[in-house]
Design a protein that fits this description.
The structure holds two protein chains of two kinds. By secondary structure, chain A is of the alpha/beta class. In chain A, helix 3 (68-81) packs across helix 7 and helix 12 (229-237) crosses helix 14 (258-267). Chain A is globular and about 70 Å long. By secondary structure, chain B is of the alpha+beta class. In chain B, strand 1 (6-11) and strand 2 form a beta hairpin. Chain B is extended and about 60 Å long. The chains are: A alpha/beta, B alpha+beta. Chains A and B meet through helix 2, helix 10, helix 11, helix 12 and strand 9 of A and strand 1, strand 2, helix 1, strand 4 and helix 2 of B.
Chain lengths: 542, 137
């Protein structure tokens, strides 16, 4: 998020799109509802489904799946046509405006209606509400990014904020709601193929030399970015990847086109899995290393507003499981040939892989990462710190891009609408949309083991529109089969008026109703994110 | 009313909101979860998962021993044997096929420190940028 959760109550307008906030980020949705009910903020909701936030929305736009760029470009067109843009902000802080203006010139409300199915006057009204706000904040989640043109979608949202000067002030900004507890931190820590900590690019020689020297490596860090998850799986199948080390992930349930993932893991030469459960992926491993849960370890998580917060051990370790940090350090010692004698010497933890706890590891991160140089575990008491925090006396940064953008000027991106990779046809007439529900989590490994949660929602349902159900002779509770070009899943039907006609909705929490056997592994060309939200499927009685 | 042996302040393991938790512990069991009202992200609010979703910590099927595949089946093994096997297989595969034949998936559920160190293993010891996690999924 460019801004903070505490900012939500300072916004006059909230634009929420591709986020079922009440189910996936429930506590943030409370702040949104409060902003609407108590402060009179206007909520513009863009979502094909009638999700709970629709009850709080001044405007609910329900576009056809995958037409986000067309809708957002049309809103930009209207803002320009009505002179609602922030001319001062555009002149002082942005570039490439003329090219952007040209790109949205033909995106008239009528064109927008034709492409997205949202009535033209509703798009106009949404643009007016957003464009006239003193402060407007945009929020999104995977409904925007999990698309074969996810980067375009995000840039289209950023264009709107640039156009109206909604950056760098309280109650504004572009605010992705991150899914996992520490997905922000895993990215910040260099858990990505192209960057090391704090988004320092591997392509930059100075960065590589800095880390090689600090770590005293015997190998060179390659200048070329590595492979993404989806590419690694393909890499196994085409023979480029021979071994995978997987920590705390279950790609066999969470990746798209899971039949393809299974095929890859069946033929891999070596698979090591470090986890707390023998999940679907671990069952295929050659070695399984038992780590510990969040309640048995120390360290930090970074939340969606870039706040680094402490994780403290509350329970003893079970059996012979080991702290994940200790497992990795053990591996580091064995791979680097540090002898047991050397490894007891805590004076050189950087090369000896012998750290005096997570705090010492953090100090190494801070020393190598300018945006986090001022953060230490001691400073995280009591309320954490939001990066960038470049110095020990820096208070952290609740709002990014105040005086200037990271790159200097904010750049408008001219965008052309493109259809999703797979659109419904005569054989596969439905759009499959996937997502979360409040009571469960991701692949279900955690939440389905929690008795209370599993009692509330014990099984995965397949939602379809009630008119579609009636036409197919399906009632709520009937067993149905959903098929795509990649696989099939069987589960109980739930007819609902909340979905638009032609849409099927499934969660990916239930291994026995595996939505990701169906989803398309087509990816965005830049971000390599799979198109989970739009797959063509057919529905039949099981 | 049960009196806790201790109350530990920590961060919720579910979504990206980052709610602050107080875990109430009795006999090494999390029996109650609350949140301080001055918590920066959640002001004492928690969702149903954040308040009640912790049975997994105490689940009977938690892994407590390393496992190695022998004759097709995963069987219990000692730490030294398991770690030595992982390290030697990774080094063998690197020497035979090159560093980019190995991939690492770090974790959006693990801590910053763990993620940092695992990508350090990949980049600094194996010599590959094949590091990713489920950020896109």
């Amino acid at each position: 998020m460019t801004n903070s959760i505490a900012d939500i109550h300072l916004a006059d307008v909230l634009l929420v799109t591709g986020s079922n906030t009440t189910e996936a980020h429930p506590v943030i949705s409370l702040e949104m509802k409060k902003a609407v009910r108590k402060r009179g903020a206007k909520l513009i909701l863009i979502d094909p489904r009638e999700i709970e936030l629709a009850n709080f929305a001044a405007l609910h736009l329900r576009p056809r799946s995958g037409t986000d760029v067309a809708l957002l470009n049309t809103m930009a067109h209207v803002i320009l046509a009505e002179g609602l843009e922030d001319k001062e902000f555009i002149a002082a802080r942005t570039e490439n405006f003329e090219a952007f203006k040209e790109a949205v010139r033909d995106c008239t409300p009528q064109w927008g209606e034709d492409v997205t199915g949202v009535p033209a006057d509703m798009i106009v009204e949404a643009a007016q509400v957003y464009g006239r706000a003193r402060s407007a904040a945009i929020f999104w989640a995977m409904g925007i990014t999990q698309s074969s043109h996810g980067v375009d979608n995000v840039q289209a949202l950023a264009n709107l904020a640039l156009l109206t000067g909604n950056f760098g002030r309280p109650g504004t900004g572009v605010n992705p709601l991150r899914g996992q507890n520490n997905v922000q931190g895993a990215c910040d820590m260099g858990g990505l193929p192209n960057v090391i900590t704090g988004y320092q690019a591997v392509s930059d020689e100075n960065v590589r030399v800095k880390f090689e020297n600090a770590w005293q490596t015997k190998v060179k860090i390659p200048p070329k970015p590595g492979l993404t998850v989806t590419e690694m799986v393909n890499g196994v199948l085409d023979g480029r990847i021979k071994a995978l080390y997987i920590m705390g992930e279950n790609p066999l349930l969470s990746d798209p086109n899971t039949n393809h993932v299974r095929e890859a893991l069946e033929q891999i030469e070596f698979l090591a899995v470090q986890d707390i459960f023998l999940n679907e992926t671990a069952q295929m491993a050659h070695v399984v290393l038992p780590g510990v849960s969040f309640a048995e370890k120390e360290g930090t998580f970074t939340n969606t507003e870039r706040r680094v917060q402490l994780v403290r051990p509350a329970l003893p370790i079970r059996g012979e499981a080991r702290r994940d940090l200790d497992i990795i350090c053990d591996l580091g010692q064995r791979l680097s040939g540090v002898s047991a004698d050397d490894s007891t010497d805590v004076v050189h933890p950087v090369t000896n892989w012998n750290y005096a706890g997570a705090s010492a590891v953090w100090n190494e991160i801070a020393a190598l990462t300018p945006t986090m140089a001022g953060i230490s575990h001691e400073r995280l008491v009591p309320h954490g710190l939001q990066w960038p925090c470049p110095a020990p006396d820096h208070p952290g940064t609740p709002i990014l891009h105040k005086e200037k953008f990271t790159r200097g000027l904010g750049r408008f991106t001219p965008l052309t609408f493109r259809e999703p990779a797979e659109i419904p046809d005569a054989e596969y007439p439905f759009v499959l949309n996937t997502g979360r529900i409040l009571q469960h989590w991701h692949g279900g490994t955690l939440s389905r083991r929690s008795e209370g949660l599993d009692w509330i929602v014990p099984e995965g349902e397949i939602q379809i529109n009630e008119a579609d159900g009636a036409r197919l002779g399906i009632s709520t509770g009937d067993w149905i089969r959903v098929k795509s070009r990649r696989g099939e899943a069987t589960g109980k039907a739930r007819l609902t008026s909340k979905l638009p006609r032609g849409m099927v909705f499934m969660t990916f929490h239930f291994a026995e109703v595996p939505a990701n056997a169906l989803t398309n592994d087509a990816v965005d060309p830049v971000a390599k994110i799979p198109e989970y939200k739009v797959s063509a499927v057919k529905v039949e009685r099981a | 009313m049960i009196k806790p042996d201790r109350i530990v302040t920590t961060t919720c393991p579910y979504c990206g909101v980052g709610c602050m938790l107080n875990l109430h512990i009795k006999d090494d069991v999390i029996y109650r979860v609350t949140s301080p009202f001055d918590a920066p992200a959640n002001h004492g609010n928690l969702c149903v998962k954040g308040r009640f979703g912790y049975d997994f910590v105490h689940a009977k099927d938690r892994l407590t021993q390393p496992l190695m595949r022998k004759d097709g089946a995963l069987v219990s093994a000692g730490w030294d044997e398991a770690m030595e096997y992982v390290a030697s297989r990774l080094l063998e595969i690197r020497d035979k096929y090159g560093p980019d034949s190995i991939g690492f998936l770090v974790s959006a559920k693990c801590t910053n420190e763990e993620n940092y160190l695992l990508q350090k293993v990949a980049r600094g010891l194996i010599g590959t940028n094949n590091v990713d996690h489920c950020a896109r999924l």
